[in-house]
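Hi V.,

You were right to ask for the full record rather than a summary. Here it is.
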Amino acid sequence: MKAIAGVLSIVLGLFLNVPLASAQCDPSVHTEACIPQLADGFNFVKSYEVNGEGGAKDKVEYSYVFAKGTQYFLNICAPGDQTDGIVVSLYDSNRKKVGTSFANGNFNKGIIYPCNATGIYYITFTFEGSQSHCGGAVLGFKR
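Predicted structure:
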């Protein structure tokens, strides 16, 4: 009887862990896939992991110092071809929104921002109907 109970608990444990394993986020996969997708002429600067922890987080935020006279490109990568509801928004040092990838009801894979003032900028990722809450992004620049 103990042997049957032991086998049954192992089998149930395997079935119960399958959904948890598939729900885990590995944003490094998406950041690696995103690097070659930078637009032509942009140089890689940095990658960002976007892990909304299955919906537990409303946003993921990073900061970076942008330089005046430089054009920046932020590209989102998520499961599938589209952004899976991941939106990137860019805020200047005064927390004024200067760009977003969600416009006119459309999710764009990225934004291009021509920087007019050197300073710290906030890169915020939010989730609008995202299924996975998981992705990655890359930042590129050109002068």
